[in-house]
Structures are given as C-alpha cells and as structure tokens.
Amino acid sequence: MFCCVHVPDFPVQAALLRSATAAALFDGPDSLLKVVSCNQAARSAGVHVGMTKLQAEACGVTLIKRIQEREDIAEAELLDCAYHFSPDVEVTSPGTIIFDMTGSERLLGTGKAIAQIILDEVTRRGFESNVSLASNPDTAHYAARGFKGITVIDPGDEARRLSRLPVEVLGVEEDVLETLHAWGIRTFKALAALPAVPLTERLGQYGLHLQRLAQGAVTRELIPAALPEAFQESTELEEPVELLEPLAFVLNRLMEQLLERLIERSLATDQIEVVLTLEVHSDREINAPTCSSGITSYERTIKLPMPTQDAKILLKLAQLDLAAHPPHAPVKKVRIEAKPARVRFTQAGLFQPLAPEPAKLEITMARLRAVVGEKDTDGRQRIGFPALLDSHKPDHFHVAPPGKHKETRPSACLSLRRFRPVIPARVETSAEQSPVWIGFAKRKARVTDASGPWSSAGEWWAGEWRREEWDIQLTLDGHASLYRIFRELATRSWFVEGLYD
Known about the structure:
The protein has helices at residues 10-16, 40-44, 53-57, 68-83, 105-108, 111-124, 137-146, 158-162, 174-182, 188-192, 196-215, 244-264, 311-324, 358-372, and strands at residues 2-6, 23-27, 34-38, 62-65, 89-93, 96-100, 130-134, 150-152, 231-241, 267-280, 294-308, 331-342, 385-388, 397-400, 416-429, 435-440, 443-456, 467-476, 479-488, 494-500. It is built from 14 helices and 20 strands. Among the domains are: 2-155, Reverse transcriptase/Diguanylate cyclase domain (Alpha-Beta Plaits), CATH 3.30.70.270; 236-342, Dna Ligase, domain 1 (2-Layer Sandwich), CATH 3.30.1490; 416-500, no CATH class. It is α+β, with helices and mostly antiparallel strands. 30% of the residues lie in helices and 32% in strands. It is elongated, with a radius of gyration of 36 Å. It starts with a strand and ends with a strand.
C-alpha cells in the first residue's frame, strides 16, 4: 500500500501558509515579471499562469514575489510529515510525496482511517492537500493529483477509478498531448482502451507506458529522497531584538524544532551554524562596522566532539558563544543550520573509570574559554589537549580540541619538566668544552656527569634555533638531579632548559 500526498498550488501555499487570500506568485526578470503559480481563489478572479504582473494587478489579487527559500522550507516540512509515518519516502515533484505504508493496517486501521490520519497531520502542518492510497505508487500519485480530499483505491480497481481523470493529469509533453487531443482522447478511460500495437507504432514505447499508467498497471520501486546536506530552521522577528536573553527564547524554539526533525530520521548533529540577520544603522550604532546602513549577516559556528540529540546542550553552547561574541546590532532574523550526523553509541568497560560526557565537557570548556580567552599570544588555543608537532623545534606544540588529539602511550623514558622561560646560567667548561661547574638561580654546583653535546636546529631551513644541548647531573642539597642545559651558538650564552623527573 502506497500513500501519495499532493499539495495543489504548492508554491502559493508555501508562501501563504494556508491563507485564504486570493494570491499569485510572480517571478522572472524585472522587465518581464509573470505569474508562475496561483491558488484557486486567484483563478476564480481571472488570474492564470503566464499572465504578466500588470495584468494580474488589474484582477485585484495579492501578488507575492517568489522566494525559493520558502518553498524549500515547506518541502522539508512535507518530508518531515512523511517520515512521521514511513522511512521509505520519495519526492516525486515539488509539493508531491509518495511513501510506503505497507503493514500499517494493523496499527492504524482501515485504508480510509489511515488516509484521514495522514490528512490531519498534513493539515496540522499548514497545508491543504489531497491524500490517496493505492497498491502502486503511480496510481496513488495520479489519484492524488486528480481527486480532491481522500481517495482509497482497492487492488484490481485501479483502471475503473482512474478512468474519469483527464489526460492532462499525466503531465505528458505538449506535442504528445496535442496528438492525443487530435485523436479525441480526453480521459484515462479513452487512453486505456486504445489498441496497444497501433499506439506503439505512433508514439513508441512512451505511448505504451502512458497507456499502462492510465490502466494503473505500472509497478515500480520508490526512489528514496536524498538526505539533505543540512537541516534549517528560521524565523523573522516582528521587532529587532537587542538583548541576548530574549534572543535565547527564539533560539530554544528553533533548536527544539531542528532536533525533532533530526530525531525523526534517527540522526544527530555535531555542528550547528547560527546566522543572525542584523538591522544596522551606522549613524546610531557605535560598535557597528564602517558600512552603510541596512541588513547585514552575522554568523557563528559551533562544533561538538561527538554528535548529540540534546537541544539544551546546543542552546547552552550557542548562548555561551554569543555571550563571548555578541552581535553588534539588533537581530531581525534568526536562522539555524545543523549538519546531520549518525548517532554514535559508546559503552564503557567494567574496569574503566567513568569519563565525562563529551557534550557536557564541551560546555565546561566553553565556560573556561569565556574566562581565560580563546588564544594566547602565539595564536594557540588556551583550552584543549596539548599535542606535539612533527618538528625538532623546542617547545613546539599546539592545543587540539577534544576528539582530535592523538593519545600517546606512556613510555619508560624520563620526563623533562621545562622551565618557561628558560633560566640563564653561568657555565665553566673543561678543555674538551664539556660543562664542569654551573651556576643558576643563585646556586652553584659541580657537574658530576655530563652527556653531549647534541646539535639542534629545529626547522633548519629557517636558519633558527641553532644550539648545543647537554644532559648533566648535579648534586644539590645532598640529592642527585638531572638537568638539560644548552648553549646558543649565535650568542654563546648558556641556559637551563628543564629538570628531568
């Protein structure tokens, strides 16, 4: 059993959201704006597709500029409605979706009861639609396009139920439609009654396929709808919002709607993008950038180490990010875009300590970044996990975010505790240039053992960090200690770099 939901005049419904106003959509170049879609109320007023904008204005209907973003949002809403009932969904055309409802009778009841439940759900989401049930997708498709309201076609009754439909419902090419009209073919019944061989000789296999569609005899598999690259939710505010607290209420509602759509598809997200449309008046805003007054966009991207389905965590991260980087003008429109990701399930071992949840750890790190800042003077992140870089440059590391650092196994070698900054030292050397005495930090000691020197250049192609390193053993306060010292070859100065644990 297949169900088809068809929204008549879909572009107009997407723009009006079930308003009963007589309206028409116009599009095209400014010099030649034409009506591309209109609802039944506008057609009753004399408007038809292809009419110019000036002609439509004379009919006294509401004219709306076609905006593709509205239709995309409405199409996503229809898809969400279909996924609410079945995982196997096909987008046949804008405003028309087909999905497999096989086996739903045991849960939802008879075919008419199922169609009524689906119609109520589509109506609740703001669309006036036709719903049909049939044993194959194409029969359900043409029944929804040709009949109003609910249509249930039993198996074996396809040809009789479709017989009254006009051939225009098939959406055939213009030249084929003219040929059929020239033959006197106006309905599905007349097309289905034509002899197959002469029809194939004149129209080819395409004509035979049209006849089988009119008979309701075509069976095929659904073409699954492609997963969108990103899920979006947006809203335009009646009045611009300046404070973050009222903005958080808008973000919370959009986040919940976004996560609800992802959960219906058994998906999560690990990256969201918050796009704020600002109402900038450069003559009023002190912190506004040097640009002319108007509408500007302000974007912030939030990434998580692991996908999540928790809207509260995403909201908290967005609040902390906007508090650290507030917009410089009142917010007029809010759009949130989420990248879909598969849900990851993890299970801890019996003898492993419990680790903090990655999402809650990200919130803690965001709070720390708000206190200590994001980057240091060298451009490194202040919060994260230290990771060594593939270089011989001393103290060459970066700070990686959670989930992107490489864990290293502890080795049996000694650990060097570096002094930052390095400590200047006075060193006496022997005839072989090895250290004998050393003084640093107001202390002096004899070198009981020394190993070196090792020449170190770091990134040798840059001509920097050229020095000689020594590992020495000292006796201080009756205890033996191991230090690393080095001499800069350019200045001949000695320094203590660190202490071995």
